[in-house]
Specification:
The structure holds two protein chains of two kinds. By secondary structure, chain A is α/β, with parallel strands linked by helices. Chain A contains ten helices and ten strands. Chain A folds into two domains: 2-79 and 169-250, P-loop containing nucleotide triphosphate hydrolases (Rossmann fold, 3-Layer(aba) Sandwich); 91-153, no CATH class. In chain A, the strands form two sheets. A six-stranded mixed sheet of chain A has the order 6-7-8-3-9-10, sandwiched between helices. Chain A has a four-stranded antiparallel sheet with strand order 2-1-4-5, covered by helices on one side. In chain A, helix 3 (95-106) packs across helix 5. Chain A is globular, with a radius of gyration of 19 Å. By secondary structure, chain B is an all-alpha fold. Chain B has one domain. The longest helix of chain B is centred in the last third of the chain and has 27 residues, at 204-230. The chains are: A alpha/beta, B mainly alpha. Chains A and B meet through helix 2, helix 3, helix 4 and helix 5 of A and helix 1, helix 8, helix 9 and helix 10 of B.
Amino acid sequence: MKALEVSGLKKSFGGVQAVDDLDFFVEEYETLGIIGPNGAGKTTLFNLITGIYRPDAGRVIFFGKHLDRVPVHHLSHLGIARTFQNLRLFNSLTVLQNLTAPILGLEGYGLSSAIFRRRRYFDGERSAEEKARMLLEFFELSGKEELGANSLPYGEQRKLELARALSTNPRLLLIDEPGAGMNPREIRDLLKILRQVKEHFRLTIVVIEHQMGLIMNLSDRVLAMDFGEKIAEGIPSEIRKDRKVIEAYLGDEPITC
Amino acid sequence: MSFFTSAKRFLLCSIVVYLILKGLFLSGFLTQYIQQIILFSFIAILTSLGLNVIYGYTGQFSLGHAGFYGIGAYTAAYLGAVFKVESILSFLPILALGGVAAGIVGYAVGVPILRLRDDFLAIATLGFGILVKVLLDNSDRAIEILGGSRGFIGIPKIVNLETAFFTMVFLILVTRNLIFSRYGLFWQCIKDDELASTAFGINTARMKLMAFTYGCFLAGIGGALYAYLYSFLHPSNFDFLRSIDFLIIVIVGGMGSITGTIYAGLLWVAVIEGLRIGLPAQALEFRWVLIPIFLIVVMMWKPFGLLARKESKFLGLGRDA
């Protein structure tokens, strides 16, 4: 089954055609990597899928459902979660609260349960907290529950963002440049975590990344973009050798990694 | 039941404070005037708490809070006059209606203006506050009894220590229960990052509207108490400068802190009224030099307010144990 199908997608900002007539699909449980130079339209693509921008033309279909009329805040209920290129954690909240907020957004209790501290309030809070703690354990963030999210080191903030994206039990996870601003060693750790996520959570992943090593290692299939268009698509080893990709993005030399 | 049992410590503190105040009120140490000021400080706390929900927790900057306070005051005073309210028992529904009226107007105003952000929202709420003031100034043309710029006179003085204090305690508790629930969490998420909140399933438009409506409701309750404490209303009590008073209490106390608002409310009323009593009559206007200096010192000493995002464990206002 196709988890995500994008057809004829277009978006321009003024004179710039950020995404130009793009078609692609992602099979369920598949990991699709998207590469492309800066300004190729990768993040715009994510923003179109997640409803932050409305497309000028084309459609996005998620498990057979058109997303064009779905309010943005419903997407996470449908099972789409994302991370952001430049971390967007809830910085004044604690690590734990960064996870319980999305969980409680999904499975909550009513206003009167909150005000009158009915049983449902306590049950809801407890189960959200348990779930959040399990995720923190998975990402090796246990013991940091009560710290402020912005007091974590950068690498851990990245992990927390990933944990937050997984907190809503998504079927499709969109990861936007997880390796941005990381050194090679942190990238290796990240790759390990992403592989664990892939194995453990069984979901469909679309990942945008600049770090070739990471994307080639993680993806089942890679899509290369330039100037908003698809220039190549295929398994990592093919993409690595593709003329157009090498010219547009990787430079003259073939890559070695 | 667990509404009360989940906040034993806070209720216990409240009862102790109440007994002390009651003793003081009965002992005759406090003049009528001082007693009135103490009760007014509860009103200031309640109304500022509403603004803290809107601004401190949810991040929606409002400069028109006194407008909602005024709507609550005039609604309660008007309904009281129509239904000839004289006793505490018949006052309580009027008090609630004052809050509900302000909440309804807050909702209606919030639907269009909460789409705006930051400074634009500030200008829209500022405009709303001025609109209310102008309407109150001319209210006698539509309804004679409201008094227009002459003021609304002859409201029975019903609010006593018990009404003001326990209304405040009850609503602080409700507010605390909201803040430490998923709703309060969503409000804080919105303040931190609205886009991320939407991406994680929070209906930001609805949550902002809810915070705004609730904050205005608290202002309306504050206004209704004010009307029946002072038994006289004048539009100038609900102008832009009064909005600033509440804003100062929120900022000095700390954005996103119930405890902070309580302390700052007491402090603010004490400073203003203390200077009125302390300064000789011919130097009274000197207050408006001293108060800004006081504010500058406080903000330099504690730029995020006395208790930003912290709650007093002593008062038992934090999360449920």
